[in-house]
Amino acid sequence: MATHDADPLLLQANAHDSPNHRRTASNFAPPPTPGHRPPSLHSKAPTGTAAESLNIVILGASFGGLSCAHALLDDIWPQLRTTSTAPNYRLIIISPSTHIYWNIGAPRALVAPGLVSVEEVFIPLEPGFHRYRGLPVTFIQGTVIAWEVPEKLLTIDLHDRAARARFKTVRPRNTCDSDVGIQSLEYHALILATGTSAHSDLLSLHGTHLNTLGALSAAHHRLAGAKTIIVGGGGCSGVEVAGQLATYLNYRGRGVARRSVKKEDWKRILLIASTDALLPGIKPKVGQKAIKALKALGIEVRLNTRIVAVKEDFDLTGQVKVELDDKTAMVVDAYIACTGVFPNTKFVPKHLLDGKGYVATNSKTMRLDKIGYPGVFALGDCAAYSSNYVMDVYTAVPIVLHNLLNDLLAHELRLASPYGGNQDQIDSLVDEEFVQRDVNSHLCPISRYGGVGWLLGNVLPGFAVWAFKGHDYRVCKAGRVVVDGGNPYAKPVGGTRWE
Q1: Which portions of the sequence form the region Disordered (predicted)?
Q2: Domain 214-338: CATH superfamily, name plus number
Q3: Which residue has the higher pLDDT, 21 or 74?
Q4: CB-based contacts of 326: which residues, under 8 Å, 6+ apart?
């Protein structure tokens, strides 16, 4: 894998086969043993159908995709190849970006350069896989643009045309020179972890990380010279962005020594929400506290007002025209959309999606039952079961991997006895079921030292919001997501990488 977007290659993964790298996680029940192979069989090359490696493909390299990738290599890989006829496997990760974007810190990062460093919010993926030297892992920097379900075939738009020559298992879709960047890839098992994207390219990746880096730079320039700013959306993102803008652009100093900037440098900031309260869906007291905190920073809050159109650079001054549902319009210097997210599922056939465009999974096994064959899963924000909450990712990962292991072992047993002799062992592979945790939390840093929050049914004081999130937006935990796929909100000691 490359360390920059100009070179996608392709992670020929690397880690020494040490005991630490071949452990079995306690989360996974030990699979039924179809029969130990004699030591001599471990080195015997497979023949026939098993001679060609089977591709296990993960789409997406953010929280869910990275967690699945590391768990597969650490915990599942050692449990495969249980028979002499078992195939080899290759893990392939497909993502538009070679870097993860720590968008948890986006509300502060977008305000001005230096508040959150580039190195803290854009973390390269390659170093996280250095310890897998020698294992068959490949990274493809590209975007899946089509999925042929019966053929088990993905069509990929490669972001670097050189990837075609260096990834031999990707075969050209056709021989036209104009299409050399469009490739097809067959898979045996598939995990969809493509997540969601915000409407603003400041709040999530839209393609390569260089796109977001450029958007942040442009926003810094525009906000520095802006006199009027509108933030659209009354959810957590809107509240945080408005609060961070006011805190760092309209005030100097900290704590009791805080003072406002000069009148000529003051920026008028409006937060416009279509709902009748901020942070809808949370206890009303939290939304009321948010309004009070925002107004204390000089932010104007307008509720029950829907933004119906935004026209960027509509005149020669480069200003933005924001049209509202009351037939009025406002001309401002900057507009930031915090109006929700949409699933990254354009490539998924419509019959596999729910009415909102999310992947329809079996809410217990995480499989896509409509496909009609095993080995295809979806988890995280792109899946219908998720409420776009981080724990919906990490509680589902062990379930997906356990059930994927069952599917792979069942395939190995069928290869070993194509006439059904291992059916009892296949039947003994019991799936685990996902149980969604009713633990909803929201942490919204607003000022430099305060904010509003909701955790385990309790309203959090401002200093707790600062301690849990606001002091550094948890950038200190970003490396863990890349290095071992761990939950950035996990307990500091004990538990698993997901808890």
Answers
A1: 14-46
A2: FAD/NAD(P)-binding domain (3.50.50.60)
A3: 74
A4: 305
* Residue 423 CB coordination number (10 Å): 13
pLDDT of 40 = 35
Q: What number is the average pLDDT over the span 190-214? A: 96
Query: What are the residue ranges spanned by the domains of the chain?
Result: 19-197+343-427, 214-338
pLDDT at residue 83, rounded to an integer: 93
**Residue type, position 298, single letter:** G
The pair of structure tokens assigned to 172 is 């050209």
Q: What confidence tens digit (pLDDT) does each residue in 389-421 have?
A: 888 899 999 999 999 999 999 999 999 998 888
First to last CA, the chain: 29
Rounded to 5 degrees, φ, ψ at 186 are -85, 150
Contacts of 18 (CB under 8 A, 6+ apart): none
Mean pLDDT of 10-29: 37
- Residue, of 269 and 472, whose pLDDT is higher: 269
pLDDT of residue 389: 81
Helix (H) or strand (E) holding 139: strand 137-148
How far is it, in rounded angstroms, from Cα 273 to Cα 160? 41
- Give me the sign of the Cα torsion angle 491, 493, 494, 498: positive
Residue 9's region, left for phi above 0, alpha for psi from -120 to 50, else beta, is beta
Which region, left, alpha or beta, applies to residue 456 given φ > 0 means left and ψ of -120 to 50 means alpha?
Answer: left
Q: Are 34 and 413 in contact (CB under 8 A)?
A: yes
Other CB atoms within 10 Å distance of the CB of residue 287? 23
**CA 196 to CA 414: how far, in whole Å?**
37
Write out pLDDT tens, residues 285-308: 999 999 999 999 999 999 999 999
* Best CATH choice for the domain 19-197+343-427 from the list 3.90.180.10, 3.50.50.60, 3.40.50.20, 3.55.40.10: 3.50.50.60
With bands split at pLDDT 50, 70 and 90, how would you rate the model's confidence at 256?
low
Give the separation between CA 90 and CA 367, rounded to whole angstroms: 20
pLDDT of residue 274: 95
| 120-129, 233-242, 449-458: segment of lowest average pLDDT | 449-458
Q: Name beta bridge partners: 4.
A: 7
Instruction: Specify the pairing of strand 54-59 against strand 89-95.
Output: parallel
Residues paired with residue 198 on neighbouring β-strands, in sequence order: 341
DSSP assignment string, 320-344:
EEEEETTS-EEEESEEEE-S-EEES
Cβ atoms of 8 and 98 closer than 8 Å: yes
Q: Is residue 458 classed exposed, middle or buried when 0-12, 13-18 and 19+ CB atoms within 10 A define those classes?
A: exposed
